[in-house]
Backbone:
């Protein structure tokens, strides 16, 4: 599949392969604090998982650790892949394909917003702020489901 | 991160965001047949997992099912994500980021090579053909390790 780009000087049409743009998002969760979200400083406004574009020459894992650090000030250790989210309408700006990692913070430090995040904080899974942008509400539901599934046969009800 | 493209008509330099290109690969495995590999009809020559580029407007899951079908003639059902592989040097042609799905064939039909695959066949995991291109040897090792780990406490030795 191709897309056409116009040369800004001469207007010539240039054909390029059209692919989704690869991104990463990170679910950082501590049971007694909740999940780490950023409040976006740019459109679309609202709450989102820390994340961003994978740069050429960079691994997806490096991008995930870098974006978490840039947006929340926290160093994280990746613990797995929750899923890959690539619905063409998941981001209103363009088609992105996001690898969503689960991670733990390296310390109990308070998050500190940076880059294009206006705020960064932990939020209990059962009291999430709104609106949550992109498809991050679906991702957070999948994460909560995976926690619930893993704890299905624990007699005490799961909280937080 | 940016890359510069030259307009083929006027030579004007056009700055574009530089990201890896998203791809998918599929590990189709049946214990009594082995893993489904294609013999590539184009460079780099050798054996590879079925897979290819994710098109704009297409989900990663759709791309995985489509590529498996185009290259091997088999309809598959996805069973999970083995991992995401994005080392910048994994493909000699350009930086790609591949979501590797595990899958099962919908039928026991023989594979039939198509698209840029010269041949398609199942190969026992312990008698893989060579050379295996890209980082698909590493992916197949990770897959074999995941099988071995899942069967670690089975007293009978795992074969195939």
Residues:
């Amino acid at each position: 599949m191709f897309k056409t780009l116009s040369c800004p000087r001469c207007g010539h049409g240039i054909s390029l392969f059209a692919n989704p743009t690869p991104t990463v998002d990170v679910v950082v969760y501590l049971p007694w604090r909740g999940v780490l979200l950023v409040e976006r400083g740019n459109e679309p406004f609202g709450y989102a998982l820390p994340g961003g574009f994978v740069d050429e020459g960079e691994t997806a894992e490096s991008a995930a650790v870098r974006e978490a650090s840039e947006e929340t000030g926290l160093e994280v250790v990746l613990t797995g892949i929750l899923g890959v989210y690539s619905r063409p309408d998941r981001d209103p700006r363009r088609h992105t394909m996001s690898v969503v990692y689960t991670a733990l913070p390296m310390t109990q430090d308070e998050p500190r917003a940076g880059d294009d995040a206006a705020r960064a904080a932990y939020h209990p899974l059962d009291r999430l702020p709104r609106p949550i942008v992109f498809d991050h509400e679906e991702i957070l539901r999948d994460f909560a489901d995976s926690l619930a599934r893993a704890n299905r046969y624990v007699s005490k009800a799961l909280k937080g």
In short: DSSP finds two helices and nine strands in chain A. The longest helix of chain A spans residues 136-150.
